[in-house]
């Protein structure tokens, strides 16, 4: 029987995962098809790509060179056929996992019957920031006794559309995977048993003080710099230093400090540094319900996610990241008809296309592209104006072009708020969603405030104010249900929507109705410590983690501090019992297993906002 227990008295800095592997199964962390529970993954990144490393020492997801590139390793969605880079003890073992304090460098301690060894992992950066190539570095350190590891490096065949191969160049083992060129490096403590096209197998054995070092350097359609393994190894600790330098510059309250920093570090991984775009998540097609069809590609930049993340960055003093993301967002919105989401380089998101692989736990389809790119969501208006308002409130200023862009967006919002849209949940049926109307109210309320502060042109200020008041009256007349004691998901339904908890943060009028709505959401959508997105979703998917933290934040803002703190403790205790501090989109409230893409930006930013509010920090 597989025993998994976690101990987290001091959050991520002391979190350990104890995983006992019995002799009769080589890796019982995985099911018969080779899949690992999502909560057993941690993320590595460099501001351009993100890799997911499993608790058994296998990297099962890494897109190179960018987060939205085709995968080099893809066992995450292709079971035993997919690409992986595994360093796993030969003997049965237990695992203790943690990120280094205030860092995205990951440490995994394996304990076997013959000894203990530590695996240290990083996608490296340099002293001037992100390296101009992708560099995945892995170091095995002997601690006690003697530990022997098996090594497997298998590249993705991308649904059999490419055939990876090795070639000798300049005395190095250079691999080719379609347009990706890379080199596999290792030290003398690593023995290569076999190397053939697309597959490397080997072993490493370490005793006290020994170090076995393995790395991949890669790029796409570009010359390759080949570094010595010693240089790569040194950059693991340099990367750790750079991460700690970044976190030390943040403004974080002592209450919930470690939790806020861990989520901030996760969000930092999702900031695509070449452009400033914020990726919704680093993966595609991880299902919202095992066996269902809700498997989407989140490796794009949503206006909503970017806006919320910018506000979270501003709240903790990450002004450089906030400015880069805000600039990217304003430039996209100023280019014409605003989109719901964009590619990381600012282009249109391609239509969905299915990939012929098995899917996570054999849940198909696996997709690239996203249909949301062709939708209209009123939420983009509220998202961008709330972001601009927060940016200015932090003592910053808007340039003339940005102010003009915002003014045009306010006019568009005033014109279009009466139309139906796809809503925050990107549903196929366009309706008059309450959350969408609230977002329009939010946009025009902030636009009036920005105009009064002299930040944007005041020509249409009074018109925006009149439309703001009309939206508020419309919501009060059409969206409130005295019978339900709550704002409804939309006027033509009795359904409830957990995203309406955000109305409290938006400063929408009427605290009594908002408080009653929160109570109704708890009664109908709660499952243990967590919440479903809206009525009926318990049949299709897990609980949406961000919704729970939106609820907690809302109660704290309304002055319900004790209830908010108790809810926060319940949710975080449940999450702390799994993994190394990385959160997915959803959780199955019955099993506690993660669902959906990860690391999920909305979840981590919601944790930051709830924790900071509970700590008494201003919005």
Description:
With 619 residues, the chain is an alpha+beta fold. The chain has 2 domains: 3-246, Beta-galactosidase, Chain A, domain 5, CATH 2.70.98; 249-614, Glycosyltransferase (Alpha/alpha barrel). The protein is built from 14 helices and 33 strands. A hairpin with a 2-residue loop joins strand 15 and strand 16 (172-177). Helix 7 (400-416) packs antiparallel against helix 8 (434-452) and helix 12 runs antiparallel to helix 13 (561-576). The longest helix has 20 residues, at 229-248. 55% of the residues are buried. Mean pLDDT is 93; it is low at 1-25. This is Glycoside hydrolase family 15 protein.
Query: Would you tell me the structural class of the helices and strands?
Result: alpha+beta
Number of domains: 2
Number of strands: 33
Helix content: 25-40%
Tally the helices: what do you get?
14
Q: What's the CATH class label of the largest domain?
A: Mainly Alpha
What sort of overall outline do the alpha carbons produce when their principal axes are compared? globular
Q: Might you state the CATH topology name of the largest domain? A: Glycosyltransferase
What value does the Rg take, in angstroms? 24 Å
Question: What is the residue-mean pLDDT, rounded to a whole number?
Answer: 93
User: What's the architecture of the largest domain, going by CATH?
Assistant: Alpha/alpha barrel
Low-pLDDT segments: 1-25
Strand content: 15-25%
Distance separating the two termini? 47 Å
